[in-house]
Amino acid sequence: MNSSDNRKNKRYVVEGLQGNLIYTSDLEILNISIDGAAIETTKRLELNRDYTFKIQYNNTMLTLRGQVVWAVLVSKKRGMESFKPIYRAGIQFIDTLNEKAKILQRFIEENKLRTLENRFGGIRCRISNPEDMLIDLPQKYTVKKISVSGMLVETDYPLEVNAHHDIELFLNETLVNILVRIANCAKKDSVKTTCYDIGFEFVTMSEHDRETLQQFIKTFEE
Q: Residues 6 or more apart from 15 whose CB is under 8 A from it?
């Protein structure tokens, strides 16, 4: 690993460093209860992985953590379109306690169409607004250069310049969460794949995560 670029903060070339960019996607709720939900999405969800779900309700955003307990691939034809892969998954909520449970219960009561079945932990219902839930999905990136103020990464997807995104960065098995601004995006074509070099400018992070990042960078300066 070595430093490069004439910058205020030195960037260091790295190998094997990865992370996830988090973006929000729509999904459809098939049924829901206090303890979980069955959903459909166009993105594949990983079994046993935790995801963040968001429900817009009464001008507030209810944020829930849920784990994928089962997942299957199905096909659907939408309108005049051809058949497309759709993923159906079962989600078990893992943080619907106290106030969150009360808000979720009110959302279900106000939007339910009919009761499907009684389950331990709650009544499973079909609701009238099945697209009111969103999911935060991770997309992988590989770090090419890093400094205390930003990174150059490689992805297989483009990002809009000046857009802001939440990212996860894995530093020596420690997860760091950062809000970044997309400084630049350059397409790179090759014979096999299309990829992108993208500049991340660090905007905000917790003091603990900043200290973790600084300690990581110091290992290159010694």
A: 1
d(CA 206, CA 139) in angstroms, rounded, equals 22
For residue 118, the cross-strand partners are 123
Q: Across the chain, where does the E strand assignment appear?
A: 3-4, 11-13, 18-26, 28-32, 36-41, 50-57, 60-77, 83-93, 112-119, 122-127, 133-146, 150-155, 164-171, 174-189, 194-205
Query: Do you know the residue count of the chain?
Result: 222
Domain 3-21+138-221 identical in fold to domain 28-130:
yes
Is pTM beyond 0.70? Reply is no
pLDDT digit string, tens, across residues 17-76: 999 999 888 888 899 888 899 999 888 898 998 999 988 887 788 889 999 999 999 876
Q: Quote the CATH superfamily of domain 28-130.
A: predicted glycosyltransferase like domains (2.40.10.220)
Predicted confidence (pLDDT) per residue in 72-113, tens digit: 998 765 555 666 788 999 999 987 777 888 888 888 888 887
C-alpha pair distances (Å), 209 with each of 12, 133, 151, 178: 19, 29, 15, 8
How far CA 211 is from CA of 148, 165, 175, 176, in Å, comes to 10, 21, 12, 10
Domain parsing of the chain, residue ranges:
3-21+138-221, 28-130
